[in-house]
Each structure stands twice: as C-alpha cells, then as structure tokens.
Amino acid sequence: MSTRFVKGSIAALVSLLATNAFAAQEVTVYTAFETDILAKYKNAFEAENPDISIKWVRDSTGIMTAKLLAEKNNPQAEVVWGLAGSSMALLKNEGILSTYTPNGVDELRASLNDPEGEQAWFGNDAFFNAICFNEIVAKQHNLPMPKSWEDLTNPVYKGHISMPNPASSGTGYMQVSAWLQNMGEDQGWSYMQKLDDNIAHYTHSGSKPCVEAGMGEVAIGISMASRGAKLKTQGAPLEVITPAGIGWESEAVGLVKESEAAKRVVDWSISKAANELYVEMYPVVGHKEVEATVAHFPDVETNMAEMDFARMGNERADVLKKWAAKFDAKSEPRS
C-alpha cells in the first residue's frame, strides 16, 4: 500500500469524523418568547451543547397554542419552551406534552410549575401585565393617570387605549381571565363591555400596546410589564402602572418528543444558567437561587390577581368565542 494512499485515507477519515462531529442534531422548539431574546437563549444553550442546535418556531401564545393543538396527531415540535402555563395545562390535558422530570427540578419554585401529579411543564419565569401610560400624550389630552381598572372605563379615555386580542396573545388572555376570575363572570364581562367603549383597537401582539404607548400612538397600552420597563429604560415617557388584580402567568417548558436531545433542551431551560438570562427581563424566575431587580419594573407581587391556570386552559375556547363575538370588530387586521 502506497504512503500516498494511506495519507489520503487518513485525511478522508479525519474529514468524515470532523463533519460528523460538527453536524449538530437539530431540535425543533415551539415558543412564544419575544423575538428579540431568542438568539440569546439559543446561543447560550448551544455554547454548552455544541452537538445540538435549536430550530425556533415562534408566534404569539394564542397562535402557537392553536398550532400545537392542530398538529396533535402529527406533532412537529419536539419541545415547547416559553409558552403560558394555561396553554401548557391545556396541551397536557390533550396528551400533547409528555410527562417528564427534568434534571434540577428540585431547585425550582413549585408555584410556577404544573400543579398536578405526573408533572409535564415547568416554569421559566412569571410574566405580568401592566398599564403603560404615556405622560406626554396624556398631558396633551388632559388625561388623568389611572390607578385602577375601573378608572379605564372613564369616558375621558375614549379612543386612547389599546390592548391585546386574547385569542392571539397570551398577554391579552391572561388579563381577560384575571378579570373574570377575580371580578366574577357577570361583572367581568360587564367591565370589558365598558372598557371596549374606550378601546381604539386590539392588537395581535402582547407587547405592541406598550410599544404604541411608548411611541405616542395611544396614551394607554394594556400590555407586558417587562416591555414597559424596557421602553422606559430606553427613555420612553412611560409610567408603568400595576393596579390590583393584575394578570400574570408562568412561562413554561415541556417535552413533546422523548428524544435525548429534546430532553437536554428541557433540562438546560430550567438550569441556573438559563434562569440568569430570564432574570435580565423578568424579576420572578423559576430557579430558587436566581433573583434580581429589573430597572423600572413596577411592584407586582402585592397586586397579583389570583390565577387558576388549569381553569384558564379549560375555559379558554369558550371565553375566546364569547370575547370574539362581543369585541373582535375592533381587532387590527392580521399581518
């Protein structure tokens, strides 16, 4: 055998091994995380797991939940990471999520996890609603600063408020559910009817109403508190208000397909390293040892509504059907 042949064979073998070593296994992850944080989470995971790559499929909570339900008999997702607890409860009930106990689960705050036996989902963070109030626009229109949900039904705010469509946005649905659970069914629907009189439009994004308020397109956006805090940090003339009965949810992770690579994504998503990324945007995260103060984030814990995530999931279809019949006419066109 010639030396040239041996050298050529070794080079080919080394090349083949190198190709296989760097051909990372792709895991499809469905998410409703905000678009601007996906790269950060993907890069951090892949830095620790170079043999696995994440393929994000992202949409708003309502659309992503509907997609997962539609694909029930032919699942395309392997992991769901960053979806509302109420949606996760529904997906578990439909048999879409697999029961799985990730490594490190004992280090998590139990209040953000699946409350039932045979757990299938685990909290990454808690996200909250807020009223984003543009002080400059308010001054131009002589609008007082609201302090309660009832204040928003004042006719002075007519045409100055936007909020998310609850069918498209988990942010919207969790506030609708908070009103219904804490005010009672009749009073909750009555309240939303009065509020609708003042609504300029409903958006298909949970963060958009706050962005609109920050840009002065509306005076008030019922939206994500984290988005309001971030915009205020960037200089937007916003007051971020959390009245009593503010809606909130656990944003969670769960396993769909039981591959080893998918399990490693779930394991990493509840790790301390992952939680140290979540806490950059959310003051309440899943890991017991991770906490921080987020700049301009309002006091939320004293005004949190009592939320039953299982009820939210079970009632979702009926609530959204009733909401659409009453209020969908003011929703923005879908892009």
DSSP summary: helix tally = 12
CATH topology of the largest domain: D-Maltodextrin-Binding Protein, domain 2
Kindly report the average pLDDT value.
91
CATH superfamily of the largest domain: Periplasmic binding protein-like II
The total number of structural domains is: 2
Order of helices and strands: HEHEHEHEHEHHEHEHEEHHH
Mind summarizing the main beta sheet?
A: 9 strands, mixed
**What proportion strand?**
15-25%
How large, in whole angstroms, is the Cα Rg?
A: 22 Å
Shape: globular
Number of strands: 9
Q: What structural class do helix, strand and pairing data support?
A: alpha/beta
Percent range for helical residues?
40-55%
CATH architecture group name of the largest domain? 3-Layer(aba) Sandwich
What would CATH call the class of the largest domain? Alpha Beta
- N- to C-terminal separation? 66 Å
Query: Regions with pLDDT < 50 over 5+ consecutive residues?
Result: 16-21
GO molecular function, one term: thiamine binding
Protein name: Putative 2-aminoethylphosphonate ABC transporter substrate-binding protein
GO cellular component, one term: outer membrane-bounded periplasmic space
Organism: Vibrio astriarenae
Textual characterization of the structure:
With 335 residues, the chain is α/β, with parallel strands linked by helices. It folds into two domains: 154 residues, Periplasmic binding protein-like II (D-Maltodextrin-Binding Protein, domain 2); 151 residues, D-Maltodextrin-Binding Protein, domain 2 (3-Layer(aba) Sandwich), CATH 3.40.190.10. Strands 1, 2, 3, 4, 5, 6, 7, 8 and 9 form a nine-stranded mixed β-sheet that branches. Helix 4 packs across helix 12. The longest helix is centred in the first third of the chain and has 20 residues. This is Putative 2-aminoethylphosphonate ABC transporter substrate-binding protein. Keywords: Signal. It comes from Vibrio astriarenae. GO terms for molecular function: thiamine binding; thiamine pyrophosphate binding.
